[in-house]
Design goal:
Length: about 180
């Protein structure tokens, strides 16, 4: 899918744990029409940047590192294998779409849970030193997030007030991003 969208030439076998970045140009007939009228020296089309992390590994530490580039993404697309091919064996030994989807969902949830838990610890330490209403509000929101993640619920399913959304923006939680 990545190669089709970006026309990038990537050999996943040479660097299986490396994130691949590709850019797809988005042609727009309106831009062409405008360029005919205004005759610019250069036409710049909109672009979409795609990041492909390949499949997740069984090693949690490697997964954590491979998920880092996704934090900057606006949305996630989860491509699932639904075909048998003896020449390209499935990493888990068999093709099972639901298992693969759940596996990725759990990995994203665990990654966010780890991040939320670390921040909660830091906020609690800071609150012991000095009471701060902003930190208390952040602790409340993060605790809500941690409870949802522990219940294996992605954060995109929670409702947040605008001020809570603002607090969470810097964390770039993976399970808050839209997924297709």
């Amino acid at each position: 899918m990545f190669r089709i969208l970006t026309k990038a030439r990537v050999d996943a076998r040479s660097a299986p744990n490396q994130a691949h970045v590709g850019i797809a140009r988005v042609p727009d007939m309106r831009v062409v029409k405008l360029s005919e009228v205004f005759k610019p020296k250069k036409i710049t089309y909109a672009t979409i940047e795609y990041v492909d992390i390949g499949g997740l590994q069984k090693d949690r530490e490697k997964n954590s590192a491979s998920l880092v580039p996704l934090r900057e993404a606006d949305a996630l697309a989860h491509v699932v294998r639904l075909f048998e091919d003896p020449a390209v064996p499935h990493a888990a030994g068999s093709v099972d779409a639901m298992r693969d989807i759940e596996s990725v969902d759990i990995e994203l949830i665990l990654n966010d849970l780890e991040q939320a838990s670390k921040r909660i610890e830091r906020v609690q330490k800071d609150l012991k030193k000095k009471k701060d209403p902003l930190l208390e509000a952040e602790l409340h929101v993060l605790t809500r997030c941690r409870e949802a993640l522990e219940a294996e619920k992605p954060l995109r399913e929670l409702e947040f007030k605008p001020e809570e959304q603002k607090m969470l923006t810097g964390f770039m939680f993976l399970t808050r991003k839209p997924i297709a």
